[in-house]
Each structure stands twice: as structure tokens, then as C-alpha cells.
């Protein structure tokens, strides 16, 4: 289990270094069989090491003593139960994607991360962070999509690996930045 905890730590630090998870925001997880490694609550992704990553089963029972998992644990678990083949979940509050989320504006999908099926990324309405309602909305919003904007909140991306989910979240942030710059230049 140390390897999956170490991978969560590596990706956590990467996301922080890319400016995608400022302060103590954001949480990520990696599923291996029936065990989920997830970042702890109220800790900066900058400071995560393998020993700090919580382990839980798919029912949410804590398997790692003394580590409190992210307050968004239910959101992660619902995704894993709903989406077969998903092994990585990234939930971040990156500046541009979150700016769009706070403004209630959709992000246009650009080419570069696979075929474009829809014009805009799916956005779900606002629900309090860590709530069962938010977890349900995200689960439903991700039935056909791999990235989702949470109105007034941030971004969730999933993938067949944690690396793919992280790359997708990075792509969404860079897309949001590109669209923002484009809109500013058009004024």
C-alpha cells in the first residue's frame, strides 16, 4: 500500500507546484482494488508525503490509523462506486477554472485532450463542500464526462490513472486560462 500512498503524494506536490491547488485547497485520490488512498483533510498538497496519505475502503472505513481523510471523501467514493475503470480522482480549486465556476460561466472545450463531443464542459450547481448533496451531483455529472466544473467551487477530473486525472485537470485549467485571455483581448 505504500506505493499508492507515495503516488498520491507525488501527484499532490506536482499539482501544488503547478499552481493548481493553492493553500490548503484540493484533494486527490487513487484507487487500487478495494482500497482508496486519499489526501488528508486540512493539509496543503505541497506538504503531502506518503506517510500523510489516508487509506480507506470503498465503504469509507479508515484503514490508516491517525490520518483523517479529506472532507470530500464521500465525493471520491461515490465516483469510484459509479465509474468502473476510474482509478484516479482530482478535485482542485485552480485559479482560472475556479474563476469560471465562481462566475457561473461554462468553459468551452478545446481540442487537445481527446475528441470533442460537447461544446462546453458540464457544470453542476452549487452545493456545500463536503456535503452528500455535492457528492451526488458530482457522481451524476460524471456519468458521461471525465471533467466537471462545480459552480461556485472548483473542478473535478477523473481518469483510468491518477496521472491521467491530473493531466486532465491541468488541461482544463490551461483551457480556462486561454479562454479568459481570449475574452480579455476581444474587449
Structure, explained:
It is built from five helices and seven strands. 43% of the residues are buried. It is α+β, with helices and mostly antiparallel strands. It has a seven-stranded mixed sheet with strand order 3-2-1-4-7-6-5, with helices on both faces.
Number of helices: 5
CATH class equals: Alpha Beta
Named CATH architecture: 3-Layer(aba) Sandwich
Order of helices and strands: HEEEHEHEHEEH
**How many strand segments?**
7
Query: Which spans have pLDDT < 50 for at least 5 consecutive residues?
Result: none
Keywords:
alpha+beta, L-fuculose-1-phosphate Aldolase, 7 strands, 7-stranded mixed beta sheet, 187 residues, 5 helices, globular, 17% strand, single chain
Amino acid at each position: 500500500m505504500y506505493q499508492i500512498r507515495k503516488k498520491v503524494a507525488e501527484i499532490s506536490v506536482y499539482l501544488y507546484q503547478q499552481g493548481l491547488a493553492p493553500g490548503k485547497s484540493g484533494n486527490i485520490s487513487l484507487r487500487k482494488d478495494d482500497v482508496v488512498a486519499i489526501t488528508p483533510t486540512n493539509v496543503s498538497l505541497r506538504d503531502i508525503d506518503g506517510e500523510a496519505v489516508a487509506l480507506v475502503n470503498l465503504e469509507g472505513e479508515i484503514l490508516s490509523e491517525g490520518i483523517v481523510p479529506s472532507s470530500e471523501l464521500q465525493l471520491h467514493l461515490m465516483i469510484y462506486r459509479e465509474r468502473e475503470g476510474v482509478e484516479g480522482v482530482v478535485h482542485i480549486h485552480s485559479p482560472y477554472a475556479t474563476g469560471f465556476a465562481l462566475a457561473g460561466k461554462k468553459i468551452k472545450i478545446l481540442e487537445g485532450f481527446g475528441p470533442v463531443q460537447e461544446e462546453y464542459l458540464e457544470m453542476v450547481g452549487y452545493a456545500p463542500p463536503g456535503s452528500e448533496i455535492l457528492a451526488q451531483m458530482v457522481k451524476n455529472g460524471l456519468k458521461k464526462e471525465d471533467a466537471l466544473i462545480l459552480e461556485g467551487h472548483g473542478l473535478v477530473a477523473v481518469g483510468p490513472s491518477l496521472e491521467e486525472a491530473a493531466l486532465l485537470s491541468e488541461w482544463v485549467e490551461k483551457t480556462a486560462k486561454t479562454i479568459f485571455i481570449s475574452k480579455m483581448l476581444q474587449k
